Amino acid sequence: MRTGPMTTGPATTGPADPAGTTVRTRTVTAAVVGLCLVLTAALGITLYSRTAGGSVSLLASWTGEEERVFRTVLDAFTADTGIRVDYQGSSAQREILLGEVQAGTEPDIAVLPSPGELADYALAGHLRPLGSVLGTEEQQYSATWIPRLTVGGRQDVYWVPVKADVKSLVWYDTRRYPGRPRDRLAPLVTRGGQWCVGMGSDATSGWPGTDWIEDILLQQAGRDTYQAWATGTGSWTSSAVRRAWQTWHDLLTGSRTAAVPEAVLTTDYRDAGRGMFAARPTCALEHQASFIRAGYPRTGGHPGVPRGDFLPSSELIPHADRAAGAREVSGDLAGMFRDTPQARRLMTYLASAAAQQAWAENTAADQIRPLSVNTRVPSSVYRTDPVTTHVAQALRAPGTTCYDASDAMPPAMRDAFQRGVLEYLAGSRPLDDLLARLDHIRTSVPRTQWLPSVCS
Q1: CB-count burial class (<10 Å; 0-12, 13-18, 19+) for 62
Q2: Residue 336 near residue 97, CB atoms below 8 Å
Q3: What are phi and psi of 149, to 5 degrees?
Q4: Whole-model pTM?
Q5: Residues contacting residue 70 through CB under 8 Å, at least 6 positions apart
Q6: Residue 285 DSSP symbol
Q7: Mean pLDDT by 10 residues, the chain (456 residues)
Q8: Residue 268 forms beta bridges with which residues?
Q9: Domains along the chain?
């Protein structure tokens, strides 16, 4: 093998190669090798362009069938961009995210139900602004869903809803009460023992009770009182807030003085509604968000239609303002924790009408379709069954829309609210003392940690 420089001048073409064959062979070989290198480089560029998308990590709560459907949406994103999505689904996503943020290993994007928690991350510098990421997609959402926060003297948006639910609903069994049987259900409301209730939810036990109190306050006192309270300027000791707590107790027990059954504290919220559908029903009504219908038994005619249907809570809550058309809502909100080109692309995609419509359309016929508040997602996508159609109409109906107050509150306030619900039901603390303590916590949380608005 030659180790020195190869030359093609006369000194190398002596008598041993009178016809110059060696030179021609070497020249052809060099040309072939060069062509191969060019082709290999071109092929390499092509292969690189298909795999250079990189990856993005995403943490959310969806597992099982929900995860399978959501992954089809992510697969479409990967096929279009070449960006691989490393998805982690867990019902403990809040705890996982907190640990990863503290360790400096947070995912690129995380989905949480709590704007108050996301605002906390934004103020601490962990969440990245999205104004330049969403572009015109921001216009497809109301301020209830993506409020502008002031962080470091700059206003911007920090999350986008990818899925939504309605909470101002009272469910019933359509076999026992077919149609829209308000006149038959109304007498049961204050009778006591007619409500299917469970506070159990692992580390977040108590939140079903916060939903109750929030909705009662909204229906009885109206938008302005609700918003002031949810954003930290309204007192927990006000007569309107106290009345909401007391109304809830009276609905559950049917009496101002009766004790709440212990089973309310120990029953998991996912099991509470089973009593409505038992051979011998133990309850007739359930105040719960629209996602609860996924756990209800199905009708015989269609595997995707739950037996339960609902009335707006304003039709059944005592002293509610029915004309206001107020409703409490919640959602799964995506925030960007690492600003990378891949994370930006995925955030834009998740916010788009195309992705959210595809998510609904890819859901199996025997599963409930996720709801979107992107105004470009057509309502026709929810006409798969009468109950989903009904929920979608309630979500998009005219009237006041307010975000779940406890989810919007700073985490310290939210957690104290949930604990307070459990103490109240257990009878371990007088209501006035409980509300005074909660109000003290409200005043101790800095104003900068509260959202500016929760209603539209």
Answers
A1: buried
A2: no
A3: -105, 150
A4: 0.87
A5: 60, 62, 87, 89, 359
A6: B
A7: 35 38 38 39 35 86 95 97 98 95 97 97 97 92 93 95 98 91 95 96 96 98 98 98 97 92 96 95 97 88 79 97 95 98 97 96 89 95 90 93 97 98 95 98 96 94
A8: 200
A9: 57-164+329-402 (3.40.190.10), 165-328+403-449 (3.40.190.10)
How far is residue 206's CA from residue 371's CA, in Å, rounded to a whole number?
A: 25
Q: CA torsion, points 149, 153, 154, 155, in degrees to nearest 10?
A: 30
Instruction: Say if residues 358 and 76 touch (Cβ distance below 8 Å).
Output: yes
CA distances from 400 to 144, 319, 420, 429 (A): 10, 17, 27, 34
Q: How many CB atoms lie within 10 A of CB 90?
A: 15
Its sign, for the CA torsion 161, 400, 143, 215, is negative
Q: Can you give the length of the chain in residues?
A: 456
Neighbours of 124 (CB within 10 A): 10
Chain position carrying tokens 């609902």: 310
What is the chain's percent helix, strand, coil content, to nearest 5? Answer: 50, 15, 35
Residues 346 and 83: their CA atoms lie apart, in Å, by 9
Q: What's CA 194's distance to the chain center, in Å?
A: 30
**Side chain identity, residue 12:** T
- pLDDT at residue 301 in the model: 63
- The CA-atom distances, in angstroms, between 66 and each of 52, 252, 360 are 29, 33, 11
- Distance (Å, whole) CA 444 – CA 205: 24
Alpha-carbon Rg for the chain, nearest whole angstrom, is 30
Q: Are 421 and 206 in contact (CB under 8 A)?
A: yes
Packing angle, helices 411-426 and 207-221, rounded to 10:
90
Q: CA 185, 188, 191 angle in degrees (round to 5)?
A: 170
14 phi/psi in degrees, rounded to 5: -80, -160
List beta partners, residue 336. Answer: 109
Beta bridge partners of 164: 331, 371
Of the candidates 206, 197, 117, the residue with the CA atom closest to the CA atom of residue 419: 206
Closest CA to 116 of 338, 351, 406: 406
Tokens 């597992």: give the residue.
63
**Which helix H or strand E contains 58, and what residues bound it?**
strand 55-60
Sequence-ordered list of residues with C-beta below 8 angstroms from that of 431, at least 6 positions apart, any chain: 242, 245, 246, 424
